Amino acid sequence: MNIHEYQAKELLAKFGVAVPKGIAALTVDEAVAAAKQLPGPLYVVKAQIHAGGRGKGKFKELGPDTKGGVRLAKTLADVETNAREMLGNTLVTIQTGEAGKQVNRLYITDGVDIGREYYLSMVVDRASGRIALIVSTEGGMNIEDVAHDTPEKITTIIVDPAQGFMPHHGRAVAFALKLKGDLNKQAQVMAKQLYDAFVAMDCAMLEINPLAECGDQLFVLDAKMSFDSNALYRHPDIEALRDETEEDPAEIEASKYDLAYIKLDGNIGCMVNGAGLAMATMDIIKLNGEFPANFLDVGGGANKEKVTAAFKIILKDPAVKGILVNIFGGIMKCDIIADGIVAAAKEVNLSVPLVVRLEGTNVDLGKQILEGSGLPIVSASDLGDAAQKIVAEVRKAA
After folding, report:
1. Per-residue pLDDT band at 53 (split at 50, 70, 90)
2. How high is the pLDDT of residue 68?
3. Mean pLDDT across the stretch 309-330?
4. Which residues of 83-118 are buried (b: 16+ CB within 10 A; e: fewer)?
5. Please, what is the Cα angle at 47 between 44 and 50, to 5 degrees?
6. Are the CB atoms for 326 and 383 separated by under 8 Å?
7. What confidence tens digit (pLDDT) does each residue in 112-122 have?
């Protein structure tokens, strides 16, 4: 789960992290009122969407020559003008794609005098199974560009979970940032604060870009946080920060049934159990010349309700011209899946080709249920056969 910048900063401030004063706003009037509560005379008006690159983005309705989603304002009138141009309009950034995202809220912060900008993030390193700190002196720009052009300017620091964050980790961060004197000490303290926040809130990623040197003070000027969705039951306060307007409606619907769903750009819908099998299914569809319309993992405990919900979610995508169901019955029995497929196909009045490949527990019973349903369901013997058949059916229907 992702949250907005202003929410991330509010959470980090609870751990003692230094952030500029700021207030969220949903309307133009709220934006002006927020600025009046800040010291000024320089303000920053920041569009709040779940995407990076906001400063370099452009508003679709305003044309390519307008300012981006992060703007300086020297007066309250400037705050009002910028807020009016941003709210309700569509911000297109390098991360949103051409569709962009509508700006529904702003963050008005106090302006600061920036000396140097740094980069600091924390992620779960799957290779080592530990938290990794990624540090660079090249803040304020895409870390992907830094990694590609000047990888030597990135330092990675791994923290042993048995030890936790130690003083030498803080010193390594400050050294990588080439900070001296009091700023060096601040960096050590902040790195520990950020690590504590990361662990306490079950973060999946915490990115500070930039971490700014403002006179004799280090400030977090921008923060991006995402959380382990499987741990949100421990953090109802964080779960309450979820902004569903920033998410795909189909993905929101899928989460209600504990389905893992991600929309893609293809034309063949996929319903699979297990992430690895789902990836293999998408790959073999591409190998046969078509493209998957989604990633959908129904998990190991699917029932008729979940399967029916999965079908409905897949079919809400108008690009879907056929569906491939690929189920390996281990914990999940093939006959239960087959019952769900038949019930779902009847309920949604299925009008696109459907190819089903079942294997595992009660597979013969599952196939009998499909064959006796009276529905035009095409059975496949294996994954390769299933991919060939759904591609052929989609092309024939076209």
Report:
1. confident
2. 92
3. 88
4. bebbbebbbbbeebeeebbebebbbbbbbbeeebbb
5. 135
6. yes
7. 889 999 999 99
Q: What is the pLDDT of residue 320?
A: 93
> Is the pLDDT reported for residue 204 higher than 90?
yes
pLDDT digits (tens, 9 = 90+) for 269-313: 999 988 888 999 999 999 999 999 999 988 766 677 788 888 889
Nearest to 362, CA basis, from 322, 315, 391, 330? 330
Residue 239 and residue 294 in contact, taking contact as beta carbons nearer than 8 Å? no
Residue 57 tokens, joined: 């983005």
H-type helices in the chain, by residue range?
5-13, 28-36, 76-86, 143-149, 167-176, 181-200, 236-239, 249-256, 275-287, 304-315, 334-347, 363-371, 383-397
CB 227 within 8 A of CB 219: no
List phi, psi (to 5°) of 205.
-155, 140
Residues forming beta bridges with residue 2, ordered by sequence position: 226
C-alpha–C-alpha distance, residues 158 and 370, integer Å: 51
Pairing of strands 116-125, 130-136: antiparallel
Residue 235: CB atoms within 10 A of its CB come to 16
Cis amide leading into 20 (omega within 30): no
Q: Say which amino acid occupies 61.
A: E
CB 302 within 8 A of CB 291: no
> Sorting pLDDT into bands at 50, 70 and 90, what band is 76?
very high
Alpha-carbon torsion (278, 261, 340, 318), positive or negative: negative
Q: Is the distance from CB of 208 to CB of 196 less than 8 angstroms?
A: no
Q: What's the pLDDT at 369?
A: 92
Per the annotation, the verdict on 371 as an active-site residue is: no
- The active-site residue out of 207, 213, 290, 393 is 207
- Supply the pLDDT for residue 302: 66
Rounded Cα–Cα distance for residues 390 and 376 (Å): 13
Instruction: Reply yes or no on whether 119 is catalytic.
Output: yes
Euclidean distance between CA atoms 277 and 123, whole angstroms: 26
Q: What is the DSSP secondary-structure string of 203-240? A: EEEEEEEEEEEETTEEEE--EEEEE-GGGGGG-HHHHT
> Could you say which of 43, 107, 118, 119 is catalytic?
119
